[in-house]
Amino acid sequence: MPSMDRIRGPLLGAGAVVLAALVAGSFLPHFVSVANLSNVLVQASLVAVASYGMGLVLLTGGIDLSVGGVMSLVGVVDAVLITNGMPWPLAIVLGLLLGAVTGMINGLAVSRLDLPPFIATFGTLGIAAGLALFIADASHIGAMPEAFVSLGNDGFGKVPYLVVIAGALLLVLELVLRHTPWGVFLRSTGNAIGVARTSGVPVAATLVSAYVASGVLAALAGTLLAANLSTAGPLQGEPYTLSAVAACVIGGVDLAGGKGHLWAAALGALVLAALKNVLNLIGVEPFMQNLVLGCLIILAVILTTRGHAVRRNVLTWFRPRRRSIA
């Protein structure tokens, strides 16, 4: 069972989400409308799916900067295959395999070639982004079949399919992390890779599997994004790398590895989606939204890595000081 210290941050985050929703609803009545809240959940689900893979890699002490490029590439590949007559379920499967291949490349570069994860995945990002631009001829691909578009826009009654998919993935991944050796291997590798090796943990295989999982989840996120937008563009996945990292950091996933929960990353994705929605409603320009997001990431990292020191300093500042007696 996780200690209270491990879950206090995410629980406080959940309270912050509820409080922020109440405040936003009082000033922006449209924010709490059913249609708008459904849109927030859909956007949060897209970020959450990408953040699950990012979270798995972060647990090993690495990072996957190729997420956005893989999302764009797989979305474009899916669109090309579907618009050329391939059944969309088969196109989705091939897109997931493409994501697995990119993840395998990342994992082998990190585990076998000893490349820093930042460099290896940044290189893969460039390759994926370049291929997406080449395949799409630097333009968007539309004319998607109705059944494929329905996957990203319809749902079971009032519950969008995307929310169901994100929730089901979260449940499966949390069970795997908590109740299988793989979850132990991921955290052990992130906590101390040298100790993990001497303890018999298959470090190389664990690293490769984490990056493969991230590639597959990024591919799924790219597919769902294309279905939601009814089109595929070579750059539309680009913002999701930063969003996936931000969701994990806001949820308390340790950038140094070994600590964190995917359910907290999902909560971070919800925080991001709600924040962006509020900024859109009050008319904040997109580039200013990125500024806010960057500041939020820095603040979250400070609170995650130095939370105890920050709380101690704040308490010291507000604690009444004793007056010296002359």
Describe the protein's architecture and organization.
By secondary structure, this protein is mainly alpha-helical. The protein has a single domain (20-317), classed as ABC transporter involved in vitamin B12 uptake, BtuC (Orthogonal Bundle). Helices cover 75% and strands 1% of the residues. The protein contains 13 helices and 2 strands; from the N terminus they run H-H-H-H-H-H-E-E-H-H-H-H-H-H-H. The protein has a two-stranded antiparallel ribbon. Helix 1 packs parallel to helix 12. It is globular and about 55 Å long.
**Cross-sheet strand order for the largest sheet:** 1-2
Report the C-alpha radius of gyration, rounded: 21 Å
Overall mean pLDDT stands at: 85
Structural class: mainly alpha
Number of helices: 13
Q: How much of the polypeptide forms β-strand, as a percent range?
A: under 5%
Sheet with most strands:
2 strands, antiparallel
Unreliable parts: 1-6
* CATH architecture classification: Orthogonal Bundle
Fraction of residues in helix: over 70%
Give the CA-CA distance, first to last residue: 53 Å
Q: Total domains, how many?
A: 1
Give the H and E element order.
HHHHHHEEHHHHHHH
What spatial form do the alpha-carbon principal axes imply? globular
Secondary-structure blueprint of this entry?
Blueprint: H1 4-27, H2 34-59, H3 67-83, H4 88-111, H5 117-136, H6 146-153, E1 155-156, E2 159-160, H7 161-179, H8 181-191, H9 193-198, H10 203-229, H11 240-250, H12 262-281, H13 286-318
Antiparallel strand pairs: 1-2
